[in-house]
Amino acid sequence: MGENLIYLIMKVSQLCTMIQDSIRSGRYPLETEAQKRLAELLQVVNKSESDELDAPHIQIETRIKELYVLNNYVPNIEHLPGIIEQDVLDSFKMICRRADRIKSGIHLDRR
Question: What is the pLDDT of residues 32-43, one digit of tens each?
Fold first, then answer.
């Protein structure tokens, strides 16, 4: 019942905002200088057609400027909000690794 209640109460966009704010605020330990520098530029966006956690197709974009990862989900995944949270954190770290290796082109500074 408890997990089903989350599906009724929380919207995908609310989950995205909560995860984004948690990473920006340092709730998760940021391991590298790139992660610390880029955390405030993080955007976590619901790209789904619906805002419901039980929608047939959910897409979450994790973005820092021009670099992004798009993950998709189906609603029958157990503990879906927690899976999305972990995937966003993993995607953020992956984007930071990529950004750390950029020599020229896009600029991911704080501007």
Answer: 989 999 999 999
